[in-house]
Amino acid sequence: MSTPKPRLQALDALRGFDMFWIIGGEKLFAALLLLTGWPLWQTAAEQMLHSPWHGFTFYDLIFPLFIFLSGVTIGLQRQSLVGLPWAERTPHYRKALRRLALLCLLGVLYNHGWGTGVPLALEEVRYASVLGRIGMAWFLAAMIAWHLPLRGQLLAGLALALAYGLAQGLWGAAPYSAEHSLNAWLDQTWLPGVTYQNATLDPEGLFSHLSAALNALVGVWAGYWLRQPRGLWQRCAVLAGVSALLCGLGWALHPWVPVNKTLWTVSFVLVTLGWSGLFLAAFLALVDGAGWTRLGRAFALIGVNSIFIYLASAWVDWGYTASSLLGGVGRAWPEAGPLVSVLGLLGLQWAVLALMARKGLFLKV
Predict the structure, then answer these.
(1) What is the pTM assigned to this prediction?
(2) Contact 186, 192 (CB under 8 A)
C-alpha cells in the first residue's frame, strides 16, 4: 500500500539543475574564459570534464545525482507490496518492467545504435547506456524498497556494497585498472554489442549496475527522511550532516578503493551520495525554505521534462537554430561569440520547455 507523497518543488528544481549542465550549461565556463581570460573560469571549466580515471570532478556527479533523485521519488511515495495478493502486485511489476525496458530502448536510440538504418549485424549496437543505467538502478532499488522493511533494506544495501566492493577489489592483480578489472572482464565476456568508444569496458557496463543501485537505494532512504513530520530546517540539517559524513568516508577509502566513475567503485558511490545529499539539502533550504521560487521554477522547467530534453540533446540540432537566430550578434562581437552561442542554445531549449509546460506536455517514462 502507499500514501500520498508530498510535492517538493526543490526536487524538480534540483533535477533541472542537474540536467542544465548536460544540455549546454557545461560550455558556459569555457566561453567565459575566452571572453575574460580569468583563471577562475579555467578552474570551473576543468570541473565540466570527466576525470580521466581515478579522481572526481563536478561533472562526474551529474549522472549519480540523477539516479539518487530517482530513488528519492520512490522514498517519497513510500510504497510497499508486502502482504498484497499477487493480483494486486502484478500491475506494479508490469509497470516497473515496462519502464525498465523503455529506458533501455531509448538509451540505445540515444546512442544512435542503429545509425541511419537497422544494421544486419547486431554486434555493432551499443546496448549499454545512461538511460539504461538509470532504469536498472531505479528498478533494483524499487524491488528492494517494495519488498523489505527499512531494516531489511539497510541490510540489503550493506550486503550489496560489501559484495560489490570485495568482488571488485579482490579480482586479479590490478583490480582497479581498465584492462584487468572485473568490470572489464564481464563486459568483454557477457556484454553484447560494442562498448563506449570501443574501450575495454563500458562506463555503463554490466557489473556497475549493482553499485549504481546503491545511489538510488540511499536516495530512497533520503525520501523517507523527507517525509518525516519534522521542521524543514531540521530535515535539511540532518540530511546535510549525514551527506558530509558519507562524502568524507568515501575519500577516506580512496587510498585503498580509488574514487573512479568508470568502475563506479564503492568509494565513488559514497562521494557522490555525499554531494547528492548536500545539493538536495541546499535546494530544499533555498527553494522550499527560503522561498527562492523563481530559481525553483526556472530549473523545474527542465526537471519536469528531463527525459525529453536529454533525448532532444542528441536528436535535435539546437545549436544550428540558435546560431541562425543569434549568429549575427556573435559575428558583431567576436570576443563574446562563444558566450552568445551558449546562452542562445540554453535560451532556446528553455523556451521550448516553457511552451511544453504551458501546454501540459510532459514525457513520462
Answers:
(1) 0.94
(2) no
